[in-house]
C-alpha cells in the first residue's frame, strides 16, 4: 500500500491541458507520482506501461482492444502499442484512435513536483460513450497501481 501513497489524483493544470491535441476533451484524469528520479518522459512512459508483468501487459492490451484502440506493434515510435505523437524533454504524448469512436491520448510529463500521467479521451458516438462509461471505473483503479508499481521498480 505504501506505493499507492506516492500517487495522488490531481486536477489538470493549464500546462498539462496544453499537451493534448484532441478537438474535444470529454474526459481527463491526471495522477502525480512522487519521484525525483531523473528520467525522460518517454522512459517514464515505458516504465509505467511496458515494464510490467506479462499478466498486467495482457490485461492492458485486452482492455484497450475491448475499447477498439488501434495498437501498433513492432515500430520504434510506439510505447505499449500506442504511437508516439510528441516527445521532448517535458512530456511525451501517445495518441491512438479506435474502431469504436474513442480517441485517446496518454501524456507523461516530468515536472518539478514529480511525474504526471494523464489520460485524455474524446468520445464520438453512443457506442464509444457506452464503452468508455463501462471502462472508466477500472481505468481509475489501474492507473494509480501502474504508477505505484513503476515507482517500486525504479526505486
Task: List descriptors.
155 residues, 7 strands, 5 helices, Alpha-D-Glucose-1,6-Bisphosphate, Chain A, domain 4, single chain, alpha+beta
What features would you describe in this structure?
This protein has 155 residues and is of the alpha+beta class. It has a single domain, classed as Alpha-D-Glucose-1,6-Bisphosphate, Chain A, domain 4, CATH 3.30.530. It is built from 5 helices and 7 strands. The protein has helices at 2-5, 14-17, 41-49, 54-66, 126-154; strands at residues 7-10, 27-33, 78-79, 82-87, 91-97, 102-111, 114-123. The chain has a 7-stranded antiparallel beta sheet with strand order 1-2-7-6-5-4-3. Helix 3 crosses helix 5. The longest helix has 29 residues, at 126-154. The chain is globular and about 40 Å long. The mean pLDDT is 93.
**CATH class assignment:** Alpha Beta
Strand content: 25-35%
Distance between the termini: 15 Å
Rg value: 14 Å
Helix content range: 25-40%
Taken in chain order, the helices and strands follow as HEHEHHEEEEEH
Overall geometry: globular
Strand order of the largest sheet: 1-2-7-6-5-4-3
The CATH architecture can be named as 2-Layer Sandwich
Number of structurally distinct domains: 1
Q: What is the average per-residue confidence, as pLDDT, rounded to a whole number?
A: 93
Structural class: alpha+beta
What are the low-pLDDT stretches, counting only 5+ consecutive residues below 50? none
For the report, how would you describe the main beta sheet? 7 strands, antiparallel
Q: CATH topology, what is it called?
A: Alpha-D-Glucose-1,6-Bisphosphate, Chain A, domain 4
Number-wise, the strands total 7
Amino acid at each position: 500500500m505504501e506505493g499507492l501513497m506516492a500517487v495522488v489524483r490531481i486536477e489538470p493544470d493549464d500546462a498539462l491541458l496544453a499537451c493534448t491535441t484532441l478537438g474535444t476533451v470529454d474526459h481527463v484524469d491526471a495522477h502525480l507520482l512522487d519521484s525525483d528520479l531523473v528520467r525522460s518522459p518517454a522512459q517514464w512512459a515505458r516504465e509505467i506501461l511496458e515494464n510490467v508483468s506479462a499478466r498486467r501487459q495482457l490485461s492492458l492490451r485486452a482492455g484497450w482492444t475491448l475499447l477498439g484502440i488501434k495498437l501498433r506493434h513492432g515500430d520504434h515510435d510506439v510505447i505499449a502499442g500506442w504511437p508516439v505523437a510528441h516527445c521532448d524533454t517535458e512530456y511525451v504524448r501517445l495518441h491512438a484512435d479506435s474502431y469504436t469512436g474513442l480517441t485517446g491520448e496518454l501524456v507523461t510529463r516530468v515536472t518539478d513536483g514529480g511525474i504526471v500521467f494523464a489520460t485524455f479521451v474524446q468520445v464520438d458516438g453512443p457506442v464509444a460513450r457506452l464503452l468508455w462509461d463501462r471502462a472508466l471505473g477500472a481505468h481509475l483503479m489501474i492507473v494509480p497501481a501502474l504508477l505505484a508499481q513503476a515507482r517500486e521498480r525504479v526505486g
